[in-house]
Amino acid sequence: MDIAYPIRPEAAAAPESGIVTLMEYGRGREGLIPLWVGEGDLATPAFITEAATRSLAAGETFYTHQRGLPDLREAISAYMARHYGRGGPIERYTVTIGGMHAIQLAIRLVAGPGDAVIVPSPAWPNGPAAIGVVGAQAVEAPLCLSESGWQLDLARLAEAVTPHTRALLVNTPANPTGWTASLDDLRAMRDLARKHDLWIIADEIYGRFLHDASLGIDARAPSFHDIAEDDEKILYVQTLSKNWAMTGWRIGWIEAPAALAQTIENLVQYSTSGVPVFVQRAAIAALNQGEGFVAHQIERARRGRRIVHDALARIPGLEAPPPAGAFYAYVRAPGRDGEALARALVDEANVGLAPGGAFGAAGADCLRLCFARNPAHLETAMARLVPVLEKALAGPV
Amino acid sequence: MDIAYPIRPEAAAAPESGIVTLMEYGRGREGLIPLWVGEGDLATPAFITEAATRSLAAGETFYTHQRGLPDLREAISAYMARHYGRGGPIERYTVTIGGMHAIQLAIRLVAGPGDAVIVPSPAWPNGPAAIGVVGAQAVEAPLCLSESGWQLDLARLAEAVTPHTRALLVNTPANPTGWTASLDDLRAMRDLARKHDLWIIADEIYGRFLHDASLGIDARAPSFHDIAEDDEKILYVQTLSKNWAMTGWRIGWIEAPAALAQTIENLVQYSTSGVPVFVQRAAIAALNQGEGFVAHQIERARRGRRIVHDALARIPGLEAPPPAGAFYAYVRAPGRDGEALARALVDEANVGLAPGGAFGAAGADCLRLCFARNPAHLETAMARLVPVLEKALAGPV
């Protein structure tokens, strides 16, 4: 730390994103195909943006409800009822500045200095980082990679529990691994949480992107909603980002027992003070009229998965089972340095992947590729990428 | 706390806004004139909203720079150079989800459990509340009310410093009191901070709204920028909300020594993950083309101040010196219960004021009124409000 600027250790320790580091490395390369970030390449559809435009034209530019517009919270509840079989009262829902803010609020509710939160790993790095920012400890519980894909290791998860543990942060379907909890996995985690009086923070934002039909419930991934009791100690975080191509809008929600609604409203008040009304109008349009677009996105991700994994399967030495859910290939090159591979792919293939170590130490020999993209671009990317990876993996470890 | 839902004490202790409580009391009253919230009644002007609309139409709906668009940070630096005489490199500026998020980041940088932050009081409650949310203690240092208005009590401020103190959170011109630090006040606070190695968190969001010309520097309020050295330990928080009628947009910035830029970027990444590009485009339009509108807003607030204080001066027993800056009347009815008065004003005058106690214990016998509003509505409000307050203050204490 710069002694001229003494700051809190929790703030100083917040890590730089390992994804962004590689993006900086590749910035400005002409023709580079960017598959490193967790977003598709479709702009938000017009029926959504136009809802925001109309709201702006109508002068909806003032402060609004800290919990979110009642109309949006009704739309969220109705969406959850349609897809998850239960919506519940709008007191369960608070609108947030994206899924990240929902995670920050969830963590702020349940963890602080001296506390630990367990995260199945590899994991999206922002969860563990946000746990660190409140002064708590993120404890990684490794997933395991088998020929059929990434799997929960329940024993490792249970071993990670200590008297300091306050919560499990569970992302299913998972970024980056595509691991998708079965109903049995969910029950086992729920039972573990009950046994130790832990919260579950459930990040199911990729729930609609399910590729392994054997797991599916109405074509979506299993959810804690399928097995939880009403008002169980679960905080669900959600976002409009992925389903409706709204990454840049920064809108999501947190779902919690209604008894916590006022506390969550207070935490919104003292962090972001609400979400713009015109952004909320766009979210209402997305939730109420967006099913056709979501279906298109899911179909496109399936096609991308096929293109990418058909190509990756040709590379000897690469462990690349197709993921059960989400929209990433997360592949392992045993004994290799994922970051060096990612740099080589920028330099030699002009394709941008995220280094697997950005998602935890367990992924240091991995790479992540987002396949929610234009199929033609994916074909080109794979044609360039495969020979470079083949060459790299043919050399000595 | 609900034992079914054990949550962190810092989260559970986050207070409900005393302003919102009264708004709930008055919700749905037909014809009520709302002067309780800190925002004007003008919608964002079209040249600003149209910049957002164009951006949306152009498909700017993706993730963006965590620090904010370089174009916006250039516009901020140029604005600061024009109005405060120094802009500096864009590495000093990070775009945030409104001024509140900037305050949250500033507090997260400098305070945590075991730390204290001193706040001249009465104060906008969100600052002290955000200090509490990180587990630190907000220590109120009372301002004093004289016939010439609210004044800094430097001795009380100095007395409040302990070995736990990490920062002063200074809002000038102040919400709610209108207190506006002179250059001498600023130097004294800066010297106190230097002596004890404290940070200053400078909230100067009302700096353009100066009514006491004797204090003015180029028609704005004195700023720590006028007396600070380059890269002094000061974190400035700012917002587009007030000058450009953009309260509902949730965009502002934090200005900090460039050495902290990466840490601040990381804290943005793990709290909100950036600000929508289309909102940033609107902010660029505001900063670059908004001076005419700002001048109109300032003139309107001056007119509102005159209407309100001419009326308040007629009420015997009310201590109501016109404020030096900002756009609030914050008046004291010695010995009275500000919240009871505010409820009476809803019931009997159909006018909404904020109870003074919402801004700290020192304001329990006060009321706050926002006068950045339509002059005709203010005339009507005062005609209704004066007799009710006169009657209330004529009764026994």
Automatic annotation (TrEMBL), chains A, B:
<feature type="domain" description="Aminotransferase class I/classII large">
    <location>
        <begin position="33"/>
        <end position="385"/>
    </location>
</feature>
<dbReference type="InterPro" id="IPR015421">
    <property type="entry name" value="PyrdxlP-dep_Trfase_major"/>
</dbReference>
<comment type="similarity">
    <text>Belongs to the class-I pyridoxal-phosphate-dependent aminotransferase family.</text>
</comment>
<dbReference type="InterPro" id="IPR050596">
    <property type="entry name" value="AspAT/PAT-like"/>
</dbReference>
<protein>
    <recommendedName>
        <fullName>aspartate transaminase</fullName>
        <ecNumber>2.6.1.1</ecNumber>
    </recommendedName>
</protein>
<dbReference type="InterPro" id="IPR004839">
    <property type="entry name" value="Aminotransferase_I/II_large"/>
</dbReference>
<keyword id="KW-0808">Transferase</keyword>
<dbReference type="InterPro" id="IPR015424">
    <property type="entry name" value="PyrdxlP-dep_Trfase"/>
</dbReference>
<keyword id="KW-0032">Aminotransferase</keyword>
<dbReference type="InterPro" id="IPR015422">
    <property type="entry name" value="PyrdxlP-dep_Trfase_small"/>
</dbReference>
<dbReference type="GO" id="GO:0006520">
    <property type="term" value="P:amino acid metabolic process"/>
</dbReference>
<dbReference type="GO" id="GO:0004069">
    <property type="term" value="F:L-aspartate:2-oxoglutarate aminotransferase activity"/>
</dbReference>
<dbReference type="GO" id="GO:0030170">
    <property type="term" value="F:pyridoxal phosphate binding"/>
</dbReference>
<dbReference type="Pfam" id="PF00155">
    <property type="entry name" value="Aminotran_1_2"/>
</dbReference>
<keyword id="KW-0663">Pyridoxal phosphate</keyword>
